[in-house]
Amino acid sequence: MTMDLTFLGTGSAYPSPHRGASALVLRTEGECWLFDCGEGTQTQLMKSQLKASRITKVFISHLHGDHLFGLPGLLCTVSLNLNPCPTQPPTCVDIYGPQGLRQFLRVALELTSSQLLFPYSVHELEPTTDQCPTEGNLSPDVTADSGRLHPQERAGRTIPLDVNSDCYVILEEKRFVVKAFRLFHRVPSFGFSVQEHDWPGRLNTELLKDLGLKPGPLYGRLKAGESVTLENGQVVKPSEVLEEAIPGRKVCVLGDCSSLLGEGPLRACHRADILVHEATLSDEHREKAVDHGHSTPSMAAAVAQACCARMLVLYHFSQRYKPASQHKEGDEDDVVELRRQAEEALQGTGIEVTLAEDFLTIPIPLIKLH
């Protein structure tokens, strides 16, 4: 199964002519999962090879506008371009994010008299008070659920922190487990870990032939982890005829932060194939970055090293850093310097560093164990 990650917006604070606001898409066969949705995301989608109609899940890291303002408009545009199938009901779009997201979307759609041709559901993560300074915690009066659903809204879950894992288990399905974890920012912020289940190893067909088992449905049952009984009564277990399993891929996307909270992030992101981490300002501006709840390249590198990640992808750059292709001689701020700082911090670790740019697509291949 193919899997890749496409960056639609890699800038902070606002969309500019050279960088869109935060948004990226994890694409697997048949589905697109959107992480954050800053202003202008739908325009970026139109410029990309992705189809907005394929978005089935949205993950919002925090409630700052540069990660959120594009969501109501995107949902409305997807609805306008939807061709309903009379024999098949439209898929419900599941949206995950901090407390307050449900009310934000409900009010935005109601005040603009927006109707959708598909249902949606908002699942809220309960933050803890230590995720931000006191003034960043929203009043319960603001986030309170009125209980009155938008006409196309389906009731969503409120997801508490699991104290044992220090994570939020937000999705468990046949192919993936998705967890959220806490970050420290000016408002409650979260990161997300998408873990693919392991793939069964290849069948030892030579051994199966020796056992007298011909290709057919029994091969599929063995692949699925079931034991089968041969005509002579012999029971063949999957472990006897399957090669070593292929590890599932793991992609972790962190929202804005100046630090991790608790053990949850390191557990959820351990051995990530790709770790996406903000690097708003260069290391020389570390004090300013931290004061505003943000990170620098060496701070992102420290997280990648602690997680034993395979690749660190830096994004959410201050708009002062233009894409490398637009950098001119004499410009003071060079985005390539951000990569150099992260690489220097990771020297000798084997962790690859990549600078995200708008419309960059990173393939995520399966890696077989030797």
UniProtKB/TrEMBL annotation:
* Keyword terms of this UniProt record: Endonuclease, Hydrolase, Metal-binding, Nuclease, tRNA processing, Zinc
| One Pfam family linked to the record | Anti-Pycsar_Apyc1
Q: Which NCBIfam families match?
A: PRK00055.1-3
Gene3D superfamilies given in the database record: Ribonuclease Z/Hydroxyacylglutathione hydrolase-like (3.60.15.10)
Origin superkingdom: Eukaryota
Q: Does the keyword Zinc apply?
A: yes
**GO cellular component labels:** nucleus
Oligomeric and partner information = Homodimer.
Q: Which SUPFAM superfamilies match?
A: Metallo-hydrolase/oxidoreductase (SSF56281)
Quote the gene name from the UniProt entry: elac1
What InterPro entries does UniProt report for this protein, alphabetically? Answer: RibonucZ/Hydroxyglut_hydro (IPR036866), RNase_Z/BN (IPR013471)
Transmembrane ranges, per UniProt, are none
Q: Which cofactor does it need?
A: Zn(2+)
Name used for this protein in its record:
ElaC ribonuclease Z 1
Asked if the record carries the keyword rRNA-binding, the reply is no
GO function terms (MF aspect): 3'-tRNA processing endoribonuclease activity; metal ion binding
